[in-house]
Structure prediction request, 307 residues.
Amino acid sequence: MLNGILLLDKPADFTSHDAVAKLRGILRQKKIGHAGTLDPMATGLLVVLLGCATRASGYASGQEKEYHAVLRLGLVTDTQDVTGKVLAQAEPRVTEAQLRAALDAFTGTVEQLPPMYSALSVGGKRLYDLARRGIEVERQAREIEISALELLPREGLPAGDYALRVACSKGTYIRALCHDVGGALGCGGCMAALRRVRSGDFSLDDALTFEQIAALRERGELEERIIPVERVFSCLPAVYLNEAGDVRADHGAFFAPEHLSAGDIPPEGGLCRVFDSKGAFRQIGRGGTLDRGGPAVFCHVNFECKE
Prediction:
């Protein structure tokens, strides 16, 4: 079984679930997940988690994302993208300076109302299921962080279409952002295209297509492209066990200072990467205090693969 991270360049017309299902067939492996959902019309980087790396899903999904999007001004749809039913059309009489000013207003910490066509649940029902039945329910606006929102060269886009670069926090809907920017400009807007180019430290430049993955697997070369799961946690401090610590790790026990060969125990609740005495990544540890007093590292998530 493959264990680690595989970067996929997801094509259009695949849900993230569809992409995982196709990879299960290519890799002949069931234990596969992903971090960060992409809409079917969206393309680009999908971080795929293989084997024991699926345990990192929550952490990997929470990392900042970067997208290249196309905003179409003058068009409003029920899905907030060009695949939906047209609700309104107008001639966008907007200057580039006005658009830049509107984008600036959406940069930083902002409130965003999740779209009805989304996978969020209300009362146990997915919003997109309700939307397809013509039912709209009240949603709570959520705080998101947009660290970068800027115009890119248009490169032959039709009139009314603008290329954007967006760097944002987990839970940001680029469709909703395009809709809101169009509303702020008074002409309406929606998303015409979306491509994810970064997720945390992972870049689309290192991603593979389905065809490339299949070819590498057939040649026995795919393992060279599998990224160790600890890369997800590269921002966390590291501690290294001594041989006594290795024994304790095998039994799921905590680590006191005498069980470490290098590194400092994090403060209460802080996380760290835990490596054994031979340098192999074992787990994510959490700093805490022993009942008898004194600092220790407790297992937060175990990444040891025994399959």
The chain has three domains: 4-63+201-231, 65-199, 236-302. The CA atoms of residues 256 and 296 lie 5 Å apart. Helices lie at 16-27, 57-61, 96-105, 127-132, 174-185, 210-218, 243-250. The longest helix spans residues 16-27.
